[in-house]
Amino acid sequence: MMGRDWRVAGGVRRRLVVAAAAMMTAAVVVGVIPGSQGGAAAQEARQGGTLSIILQPEPVTLTPSTNMAQPTQVVAGNIFDGLVTYDFELKPKPALAERWEVAPDGLTITFHLRSGVKWHDGKPFSAADVKWSLENVWKTIHPRNKSLFENVTQVDTPDDATVILRLSKPSLPILSVLNGVGAPILPKHLYDGTDVLNNPYNNKPVGTGPFVFKEWKRGEYVELTRNPDYWEAGKPHLDRLLFRMIPDAAARAAAIEKGEIQYAPYNPVPFRDAERLAKLPRLKVDTRGYEWLSPLLYLDFNVENQYLKDVRVRRAIAHAIDRAALAKIVWFGYAKPAISPVPSSLVTFHNAKLPQYPFDVKKAEALLDEAGLKRDANGVRFTLTHDFLPYGDDYRRTGEFLKQALKRVGIEVTIRSQDSAAFIKRVYVDRDFDFAISYNNAFPDPQIGVVRAFWSGWLGTGTPWTNGSGYRNAKADALIQAAGFEGDPATRVAQFNEFQDIVLGDVPSLPLLELNFFSVYSSDLEGIVEQGDQVYSSLKNARFVNAPKGN
């Protein structure tokens, strides 16, 4: 890797270092791009083979423009390149943008695009595609980016290789969302003038990435093949990615152990199986590659529910849950108790001095009594239905843990299971639920992944993983809006501290655990984890050490 020249005016640079993650750092990068390998190493890389991958559950769509579900992004990161990608320190690195500059006042960001890039259908990629995607997807329908790009007032494309964003106010988080799934660039020639939400290419995507969509056989697999015209010479190494849907956890573990599956992200097997598999010389269990995400498990209360609309009831439930025991018993230590909706991994923004809800059954009982919800002759105060995220056994077992915890304080819980599409519709569209567990990725800045769970502007849109509780608080909304436009990092920290205090006091959504996901993969693989956003990025660097695997 050759040297890098970070060109930012001195005063601005000092402020941005405080902001962390080099959000608005102007980069000029020369030489081999991150993750690439030059000289003999590239020539010696073994080419070919099929990599079989666990994809669980089955995605609803394959394009991350409106649906940010985990399985969608795992596939899409191999099809769509972004303007940048992220290293393990979450600093942006060149991808479709070879370099970029940020004006000293933070009101102009200029991207210089890589030349010679083609869409998978052979059409040339250009600045027009970036401009169209920002104006028609990122600013309008994307679940995370609508507020982030709100103050982009104009997008100039003086030529096919230059994109200039002009902002009314600085937007510090922008450079933290520009990878292939964070800010997906769609082909203008296939989407312009169409209904983006229902465009058929959402399920047969055309990108610029290292792998090309070939087939989606529902209930069985998604197949991608090597892009022969990929812009990075010699990449990808593999001929094919085969994402297989195996709903049963035991069957997934068996397929991994037998070598039928060589890569399995996102806690693909129960924790006990992970401990056993990690001892096998043919397999590795790895928690790297999730750094960009900062995932947080939370419990959404439907604040319109006849019981849960009372903040005393929500606080009582918070006191009734032993989060340390949940982390140890259900998540086998691959998690730790969360004390804020902003995870502790976001060091700059996390407020560790917030009022807490320690495990206290007597306090929970007292709050429920105060709310007038007395036990009946059977010891039951009221009944709730719980919906858990249908992403595997860990979430179902979390639901069982919550059921037992709430039974101790007189709340009877019925657990309801469904597939991903039904869960999304029930919670975010129909709002036909009492309380539900899910997780969101916080990403390097709360403006990206945290505030969407609380901003009232998302209500009524039916957008997955945005304000499932139905929460409305004018002061919280104002802080969210202000932080989105604030150019001073210290002021933003103060705004997010106040935001955390408000929403944790109202507790429409209860932070449960900061998750630590793991992947399982064959020790016969190289280049499987090479960056901080790996799990949502491409496997272009992955290769088999020994003879390439067959079908």
TrEMBL record:
<feature type="domain" description="Solute-binding protein family 5">
    <location>
        <begin position="91"/>
        <end position="455"/>
    </location>
</feature>
<comment type="similarity">
    <text>Belongs to the bacterial solute-binding protein 5 family.</text>
</comment>
<dbReference type="Pfam" id="PF00496">
    <property type="entry name" value="SBP_bac_5"/>
</dbReference>
<dbReference type="InterPro" id="IPR039424">
    <property type="entry name" value="SBP_5"/>
</dbReference>
<protein>
    <submittedName>
        <fullName>ABC transporter substrate-binding protein</fullName>
    </submittedName>
</protein>
<dbReference type="InterPro" id="IPR030678">
    <property type="entry name" value="Peptide/Ni-bd"/>
</dbReference>
<keyword id="KW-0732">Signal</keyword>
<dbReference type="InterPro" id="IPR000914">
    <property type="entry name" value="SBP_5_dom"/>
</dbReference>
